[in-house]
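Re-run with default settings, no changes from the original entry. Doing this only to confirm the output is reproducible before filing.
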Amino acid sequence: MFIFLIGFQSCKKAEEVKAQKIIDQKRIEDSIAVAKKNAEIAPLLDSIILKNKFNAIVSVDWDGKKIYERANGFSNFKTKSKIDNQSLFPIASNSKQFAGVLILQLQEQHLLNINDKVSQYLPDYKIKSYQDITIAQLLHHTSGINFIGEKLLFQPGAEMHYSNDGYKSLGDIVEKVTGKSYDDNAMALFQKLGMTHSSTGNLYNGNNFASAHIGSLTQNEEVPNMPKRLDKNHISIAAGGILSNVDDLHLWNKSLYNEKVLSDSAFQIFVKPAKTFDHYILGKVKYGCGIMIHDENPKTYLHTGYVKGAPSLVIYYPETKTSVVILSNIANEKLGKKAIYKSHREIRAKMDSLQMLWTKAETKSTAG
């Protein structure tokens, strides 16, 4: 019996040593891969940030590993406080994907159906021209609504018109169905996923907010009443009132696109587009339930965000599990939106090119 126990313990020890060697080897391989990818990315993105004097933080995560991050400039131009990875930014219309997820989670719980008429939930939709609008049409921006109460722009479902008021209504539906404020629903989602730094414009009371600014790097003004001005009386939390940082948004991308937020069937609804449209920054994209989809090589899920003085872009490349987060807090509106998003567009173009190279290399490696 004693000899048996010694033999058993020896085998167990040998297995533990073997397992540890495998873990150590994986860490070495991951470290090499991260260093290689950083060496490919850093010169490209650094040059854009420095050339454009981009006041922002740019962060890239590959399969759960940070492979690039650069913070440049001021979180607040008046106090000269610097941007870092703890800085919290208003992510504007990137907030819409959270609204889409909350609605689809309620559908999974059989508390609503996205094909339901909105008039079942909200009295403002009981008027004759609005009464047939569905929740799905609000999600896809195909409701015809511009501003609630005004004449529809087109017959519901016929065309697409980007509508913050439509997403404001989605937030109202979430509140109606759950009996809780939209803020509480959003915070519960953040807490469940471990997004401990994220908040809503209504609830934020910290001291690491990256103030939004209008103007140039040398002459600008801080946007007043931020982030409180993102509330329901203005843009609304569901349409554009979430605050987050790069680490939480990487975590969100990782969770959302790896079935930790929605079931596979719900996720397929989330990314199933109703219409294709020409986005003023991103070009031709499709629109799902709060997310834009670029189907051509490389396949991309993405969304821009803009509230006064705060342009953002969040990207996920599913084929390589790469997450890109670009958060800025200054915009020279006199130059127009294309100029405001110059650095965002250039970074996306470089990342697109790298994605195609990485995918090709992975395919070749697998085949070989």
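The mean pLDDT is 92. Residues 2-51 form the longest helix (50 residues).
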